[in-house]
C-alpha cells in the first residue's frame, strides 16, 4: 500500500468539511449556506491563499464523485408528480395565477434576458459564447430555495409554489439545454443528440415500471428486511441507478451530469417524502462525505488572479448584476399584480440564489474550453455572493413569518359570526368580520384583534382595503346557503385562500360545497356532535374550550433526524409540556419517559405557547435541510 500518496490533503479537506458547519451554526441569523464557507475556506487553502493542497489522484477521484452526487441530489429535489398535478385545472380565467404557468414564463423570460446579457458581456470578454453564458446565468439553487421556503412555512403559498417550481425548471431545463449545447459545441452530429431523447424514454419506462414493482407485495417483503440492516439494499440500489445512467450518458458521449440528474429525479420519486429513511441516508452519504470534497476543491483550485485587473473587476461586477437582474425583473413583472411589488421583488431575489449547479456547470464549461478563466472565476464568485446576500434580502423583504399568522375572514356578523370572532380574538388571531348591516356591528365585542368591514361579503371590492391572502382562512356563516357558497367560492377563486368554510343549512348542498373546494359546516350535525362529546368525553370538550391563556392541545410532527431514537425524557426542549399520545403510522402509542421518538411521529401534547415554539424548532427538519444547503 505504498503507492497511495499522502493522506494529509484528504485530512485537511475532511477537517474543513467538519468545522465549517459547526462555525456557521453559530451564525444562523445570517442565513449564509455552509457551501459558501466551504468555497471561501477552500480558496484560503488553495491557489488563492496558502496553496496547502497539492495535486492528488485520490482527491481528484473524490472530487469527481462529489460532483456526481451533487447533481444526483439536485435531481432528487424534483417532484415529478407534483409538477404534473400542478398542471391540472389550468383555464383562461386562472392562467396567470397558476404557479406552474408563472414559473414557466419566468424561466423563459430569464433565458431571453440572460441571452441578451451574454451578448453584453461579450463586449468585455470577446471569447464569451453568449448561449453558454445565458444558460449558466439562468441556473438556480433548489437546494437553497426549498429549505428557506420550508423553514418559513411558505410551501403552500403562491410565492412558495412559484419559487420552488421556478428553481425546479431552472435546474432540470438548464441541465438538459446545457448538455445539448455542450454536445453542439463539441461537434457531435444531430443524430447523436437524439440519444438524449432515448435517455428520457428509458427514464420514463423505469419510472412507471418502478411504480408497478413497488406495489408487488413479495418484492416489498424481500426489500424491507434488507433496507435497514447491514446490506442497506435501497441505498445500494439508488447508487446503482445513478451509475447506470452515468454509464448510459457516457456511452452516448455526453457529459455525465445529465444522467446523474435524471437518476436523482427517479430515486426522488421512489424514495417517498422528504423525511423518508432513504432520503436521510442518501443525504448523509452525499452531503456528509462526497459533496464537500467537490465544493471545497472548487475553492482550492479557484484562481482569482485573473480578476485583479480593472477590466476583470468590471467583468465580474457585470456578471453579478446581470445574474440578479435576469431573475428579479421577470419575477417582478410577472407576479406583481398577483403578489404585490414587495413579495414579487422578494421572489426574484430568492430564485437568484446560485451555488451548486452554477459552480458545477461553470467548472465543466471551463474545462471544456467554452469560457475563459476570468469568466469562470467571476461566475463562481457570483454564486458565492448571491448565496450569501440574496437569502438575507428575501428575509428582510418578507419579514418574520411568525408575525404573519393566518388571518380569518368571517362573513356574517350574526350570533355565530360574533361568537367566532370573539373566540379567535382570545387566541390572538386577527379576525375580519364582514357584514352589510352596520347594526350588527354594535353587538360585537371591542377587541384590537377584530376589524369590522362593512359591505357585501360576496363582492371582491368589499375587500379592497383588506384583501385576503393565500395563507388566510375564509368562513361564511350567514343564514343563506347561496350567499355562503358565493362568498366562499370567491375566496377560493379570487383570493386563493388556503381554506374556505361555509355554513350549510341544507345537507343537500354539501356535495356542491365539496366539489368547489369548500368545507361545509352543518349546524345540526355540529351541535349533535358537541352534545355527544359533552356526554361521552366531557374532559376533552373542556380542554378544547377552556384552554385559552393556559396550556393548549397541540399536534406536532417529528422531522428532525437528530431526534430519531431519542427517549422523551432526554428531550430538553420539552419543558413542562405534557405528551398525551403519539401517532406512529397507523398505531397510537401512549408515551412514557423511555419511549423513543421516531421520524414522522405525530405527537399530541398540552403545552404553553412558549413551549410550542421551542418544540416546533426542535422537531423541525432544519437539521435535514441544513445539509442540503450545499
Secondary structure blueprint with pairings:
Elements: H1 8-24, H2 34-45, H3 57-76, H4 80-86, H5 99-121, H6 130-137, H7 142-151, H8 158-185, H9 190-214, H10 217-227, H11 233-251, H12 257-271, H13 277-300, H14 310-339, H15 341-350, H16 356-367, H17 373-398, E1 408-411, H18 415-426, E2 431-435, E3 450-454, E4 473-476, H19 481-493, E5 499-503, H20 510-515, E6 519-521, H21 523-536, H22 538-546, E7 552-557, E8 578-584, E9 587-589, E10 602-607, H23 609-619, H24 622-628
Parallel strand pairs: 1-2, 1-4, 2-3, 4-5, 5-6
Antiparallel strand pairs: 7-10, 8-9, 8-10
CATH architecture of the largest domain: Up-down Bundle
The CATH class of the largest domain: Mainly Alpha
CATH topology of the largest domain: Na+/H+ antiporter like fold
Helix content bin: 55-70%
Counted by DSSP, the helix tally is: 24
First-residue to last-residue Cα separation: 34 Å
Strand order of the largest sheet: 3-2-1-4-5-6
Number of domains: 3
The outline comes out as: globular
Which class of secondary structure composition applies to the elements?
alpha/beta
| Biggest sheet layout | 6 strands, parallel
- Low-pLDDT residue intervals, each spanning 5 or more residues: 622-630
What fraction strand?
A: 5-15%
Amino acid at each position: 500500500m505504498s503507492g497511495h500518496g499522502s493522506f494529509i490533503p484528504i485530512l485537511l479537506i475532511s477537517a474543513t468539511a467538519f468545522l465549517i458547519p459547526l462555525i456557521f451554526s453559530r451564525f444562523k441569523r445570517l442565513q449564509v449556506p455552509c457551501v459558501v464557507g466551504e468555497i471561501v475556506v477552500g480558496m484560503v487553502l488553495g491557489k488563492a491563499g496558502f496553496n496547502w493542497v497539492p495535486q492528488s489522484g485520490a482527491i481528484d477521484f473524490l472530487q469527481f464523485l462529489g460532483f456526481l452526487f451533487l447533481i444526483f441530489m439536485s435531481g432528487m429535489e424534483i417532484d415529478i408528480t407534483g409538477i404534473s398535478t400542478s398542471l391540472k385545472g389550468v383555464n383562461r380565467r386562472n392562467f396567470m395565477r397558476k404557479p406552474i404557468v408563472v414559473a414557466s414564463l419566468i424561466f423563459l423570460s430569464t433565458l431571453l434576458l440572460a441571452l441578451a446579457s451574454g451578448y453584453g458581456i461579450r463586449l468585455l470578454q470577446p471569447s464569451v459564447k453568449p448561449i453558454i453564458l445565458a444558460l449558466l446565468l439562468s441556473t438556480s439553487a433548489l437546494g437553497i430555495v426549498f429549505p428557506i421556503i420550508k423553514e418559513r412555512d411558505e410551501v403552500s403559498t403562491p410565492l412558495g409554489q412559484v419559487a420552488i417550481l421556478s428553481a425546479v425548471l431552472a435546474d432540470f431545463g438548464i441541465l438538459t439545454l446545457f448538455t445539448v449545447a455542450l454536445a453542439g459545441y463539441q461537434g457531435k452530429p444531430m443524430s447523436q443528440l437524439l440519444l438524449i431523447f432515448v435517455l428520457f424514454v428509458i427514464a420514463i419506462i423505469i419510472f412507471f415500471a418502478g411504480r408497478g414493482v413497488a406495489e408487488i407485495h413479495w418484492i416489498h417483503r424481500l426489500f424491507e428486511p434488507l433496507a435497514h440492516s447491514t446490506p442497506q439494499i435501497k441505498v445500494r440500489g439508488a447508487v446503482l441507478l445513478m451509475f447506470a445512467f452515468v454509464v448510459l450518458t457516457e456511452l452516448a458521449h455526453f457529459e455525465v451530469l445529465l444522467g446523474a440528474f435524471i437518476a436523482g429525479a427517479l430515486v426522488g420519486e421512489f424514495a417517498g417524502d422528504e423525511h423518508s429513511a432513504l432520503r436521510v441516508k442518501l443525504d448523509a452519504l452525499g452531503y456528509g462525505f462526497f459533496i464537500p470534497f467537490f465544493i471545497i476543491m472548487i475553492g482550492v483550485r479557484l484562481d482569482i488572479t485573473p480578476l485583479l485587473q480593472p477590466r476583470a473587476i468590471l467583468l465580474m461586477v457585470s456578471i453579478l448584476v446581470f445574474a440578479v437582474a435576469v431573475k428579479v425583473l421577470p419575477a417582478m413583472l410577472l407576479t406583481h399584480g398577483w403578489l404585490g411589488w414587495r413579495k414579487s421583488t422578494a421572489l426574484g431575489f430568492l430564485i437568484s440564489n446560485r451555488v451548486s449547479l452554477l459552480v458545477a456547470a461553470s467548472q465543466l464549461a471551463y474545462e471544456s474550453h467554452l469560457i475563459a478563466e476570468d469568466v469562470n472565476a467571476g461566475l463562481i464568485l457570483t454564486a458565492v455572493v448571491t448565496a450569501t446576500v440574496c437569502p438575507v434580502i428575501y428575509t428582510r423583504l418578507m419579514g418574520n413569518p411568525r408575525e404573519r399568522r393566518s388571518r380569518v375572514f368571517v362573513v356574517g356578523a350574526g350570533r355565530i359570526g360574533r361568537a367566532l370572532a370573539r373566540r379567535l380574538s382570545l387566541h390572538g388571531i386577527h379576525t375580519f368580520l364582514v357584514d352589510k348591516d352596520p347594526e350588527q356591528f354594535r353587538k360585537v365585542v371591542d377587541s384590537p384583534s377584530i376589524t369590522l368591514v362593512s359591505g357585501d361579503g360576496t363582492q371582491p371590492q368589499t375587500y379592497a382595503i383588506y384583501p385576503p391572502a393565500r395563507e388566510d382562512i375564509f368562513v361564511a356563516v350567514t343564514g343563506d346557503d347561496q350567499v355562503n357558497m358565493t362568498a366562499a367560492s370567491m375566496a377560493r377563486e379570487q383570493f386563493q385562500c388556503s381554506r374556505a368554510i361555509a355554513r350549510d343549512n341544507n345537507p343537500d348542498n354539501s356535495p356542491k360545497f365539496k366539489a368547489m373546494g369548500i368545507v361545509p359546516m352543518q349546524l345540526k350535525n355540529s351541535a349533535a356532535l358537541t352534545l355527544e362529546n359533552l356526554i361521552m368525553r366531557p374532559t376533552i370538550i373542556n380542554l378544547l374550550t377552556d384552554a385559552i391563556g393556559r396550556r393548549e392541545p397541540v399536534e406536532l410532527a417529528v422531522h428532525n433526524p437528530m431526534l430519531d431514537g431519542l427517549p422523551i425524557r432526554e428531550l430538553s426542549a420539552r419543558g413542562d409540556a405534557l405528551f398525551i399520545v403519539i401517532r406512529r403510522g397507523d398505531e397510537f402509542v401512549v408515551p412514557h419517559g423511555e419511549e423513543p421518538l421516531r421520524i414522522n411521529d405525530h405527537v399530541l401534547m398540552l403545552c404553553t405557547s412558549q413551549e410550542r415554539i421551542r418544540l416546533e424548532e426542535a422537531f423541525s427538519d432544519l437539521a435535514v435541510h441544513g445539509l442540503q444547503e450545499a
